[in-house]
Write a structure and sequence with these properties.
2 domains; alpha/beta; Rossmann fold; 19% strand; 3-stranded antiparallel beta sheet
Length: 291
């Protein structure tokens, strides 16, 4: 009897190992299909995070395993869009982490304005990397208009928002939002910078005129422009550490000398990048380009 129990145990282990191997193969085939069909580089993301996002769609489609989901993905373009949305989804709202925007409004923007006071062409360039549906971009536009006041039109201002998700970018360009993402926006700001349309709010044309949205994979597409302020918050945390470090070095290159760099509260500067920035406000993860 002991021998039979031992054999049963061995057979169960074989079955378990076989199922795990089949799952691993299915997952690798799925990753390859996602990369080839969408250009989304799965290998650059932390696997645990990536797998959680994929599993959301596997469960939503009632697929029994990765290979079954892969077959669905190949024949259903709508599901491909839904998967990309699941992989790139970000929590976004106006003035997320208000204390960070408070420092930007009271210290960073006045510094940029003062540094341009003697310039023939007064320009301010800002990049919101991983902008999702545009709330962060428009929050920055509101701050610039609020600080500059009557001098707003004297400056050549451009705020660029980039993201890999085309559907999010389409929403950002429209600038129409439900009230739930405006919880940090006071009544006066709503009245000044938004047009109420039934149950939604649309950003004013004046602010939409200084923003640009474009699709960009920040990992594979380097930026050749120069900016005075770059904000990339709560995006890099999902990437592997070597990718995070490379991104931070790339952001350093894209900044003008003395430019500001803001990252998420749960993120840190890594490796070579940590030597290239000087802390300005460590609590708010705000840094200045040193060289």
């Amino acid at each position: 009897m002991k021998q039979n129990k031992y054999r049963v145990k061995i057979d169960e282990e074989k079955i378990k190992t076989g199922n795990n191997l089949e799952e691993d193969v299915g997952f690798e085939l799925l990753k390859r299909e996602i990369t080839e069909s969408t250009g989304f580089n799965c290998e650059q993301y932390k696997e645990a995070h990536f797998k959680r996002r994929v599993n959301v769609r596997v469960r939503a489609t009632s697929s029994d395993n990765y290979q079954e989901y892969l077959r669905l993905l190949k024949k259903n373009p709508i599901e491909r869009e839904r998967l990309i949305n699941a992989l790139t989804i970000n929590v976004s709202e106006f003035f997320r982490n208000p204390e960070t925007f408070d420092v930007i409004e009271k210290e960073v923007i006045p510094f940029l304005i003062k540094s341009r006071s003697d310039s023939l062409i007064k320009s301010i360039r800002i990049w919101s990397a991983g902008c999702a549906t545009g709330e962060e971009v428009y929050s920055l536009a509101i701050l610039l208009h609020r600080v500059l006041g009557k001098d707003f039109d004297k400056y050549r201002i451009i705020i660029i928002g980039t993201d890999i998700d085309t559907l999010s970018l389409e929403k950002a360009r429209k600038g129409i939002y439900l009230e739930n993402v405006l919880k940090n926006v006071d009544a006066s700001t709503k009245e000044t910078y938004f047009v109420k349309q039934s149950e939604t709010y649309q950003i004013s044309n004046q602010l939409r005129g200084i923003v640009r949205f474009k699709r960009q994979d920040m990992i594979s597409e380097s930026c050749t422009d120069r900016f005075d302020l770059i904000i990339c918050r709560n995006v890099m945390i999902y990437f592997k550490k070597e990718i995070q470090e490379q991104l931070q070095v790339n952001f350093h290159k894209a900044l003008n000398k003395g430019g500001f760099f803001v990252i998420g509260k749960a993120e840190t500067l890594l490796g070579n990048a940590s030597n290239r920035f000087k802390p300005y406000n460590a609590r708010e993860r705000l840094y200045i380009k040193e060289d």
